[in-house]
Description:
The protein is an all-alpha fold. It has one domain. Helices cover about 80% and strands about 0% of the residues. The longest helix has 17 residues, at about 20-35. It is elongated, with a radius of gyration of 10 Å. The protein starts with a helix and ends with a helix.
Amino acid sequence: xxxxxxxxxxxxxxxxxxxxxxxxxxxxxxxxxxxxxxxx
Length: 40
């Protein structure tokens, strides 16, 4: 499940990120949210 969680967060960051720093921030937020929703 960790690979799926990372993949989903990566895809979301790639689609919604605005530049280098924005992509990293979006990835971290999505990764945390997916973990909080139970996708471990």
